[in-house]
Amino acid sequence: MEEVYRTTRKVARSNASVLLLGETGTGKELIANAIHQLSNRGSNPFVKVNCGALSESLLESELFGHVRGSFTGAVANRAGRFEAAHSGTIFLDEINSTNMHLQVKLLRVLQEREFERVGDTQTIQVDVRVIAASNRDLMKQIEDGEFREDLYWRLNVVPIQIPPLRRRREDIHELVAHFLNYYSELNERYVVHIHPDALAAMKDYHWPGNVRELQNYIERAVVMAETDELTVDLLPDVVLGTEKSGTSLIRGADIDTLTQEVVQQGLATADPDEGDLHCKIVDRVEKELIVQVMMSCNSVQTKAAARLGINRNTLHKKLKDYNLDSGNQQQ
Fold first, then answer.
1. Is residue 80 within 8 Å of 128, Cβ to Cβ?
2. Could you tell me the CATH superfamily of domain 2-163?
3. Are 2-163 and 166-240 the same fold in CATH?
4. Other CB atoms closer than 10 Å to residue 26's CB: what's the count?
5. What is the model's pLDDT at position 58?
6. Does the pTM exceed 0.85?
7. Architecture in CATH of 246-321
8. Contacts of 148 (CB under 8 A, 6+ apart)
9. Residue pLDDT, tens place only, 150-166
10. Alpha carbon 298 to chain centroid distance?
11. CB–CB of 304/292 below 8 Å?
């Protein structure tokens, strides 16, 4: 994380495109916002777009705007997010969710700093810095024909890899203390102490939802606490490893086991610390986790997404990415 902070401060002073890489909930948006605030564009707009939360047709209009009559429902001219971000920064989260058609338009904006609204022929010039983020392996998507290589290299001028919480467990104590203070003030409570057993349980947990999941559980604990201390009984069963669903089976210790299995099966020969193998392991763990959580939630996507610490659109896309049967799943 110290390297992440150093790179963030250094790249902020430039206008270079930045690609943030990391699992869901690791804090990519916070890093993007920090880059913007530390740059000479800090007083100008910072516009966020979650590419995975919008349908393909809506996303193009959202990014580039549209003119009246360009499609059903376009009753007036509308500026897009790139225009709104003029002279500032646009953050494209889950850039891996964009289709090939939209990727062509994004490439043009990065190269030429111009575009047209949907249904229009007038070219619009913009001065905007692009920061993109992905929770998927973009190189694999390139190999699968799902992501343009030329766009990848335009975005990947300065890559920043944000580690998952399970690889920075020494930060858990300070993160818990921070969220305790924040939510105590927000809810007019006074929960400022952490019981050693509660801290030990949190350090032992795998955190598939990363910092966002931790934040969620601390907020819940503050609301439910009857004293000034965060105790074990305020933590959910999944953290304590007592939940009957399979969620608790995916814990930090299983990463080592899965690493050996991946190597033995010949899926990768790289060192366990290298990115290629790490991505394979994370994909395998994430797929298994989603399967087990969906089973424990009776295939109700809204409930499963909440338990995983992601939004339902993201879960729906992950089900599609992993070729998981969603035919009988409830919304």
1. no
2. P-loop containing nucleotide triphosphate hydrolases (3.40.50.300)
3. no
4. 26
5. 86
6. no
7. Orthogonal Bundle (1.10)
8. 100, 103, 104, 107, 142
9. 999 999 999 999 999 99
10. 25
11. no
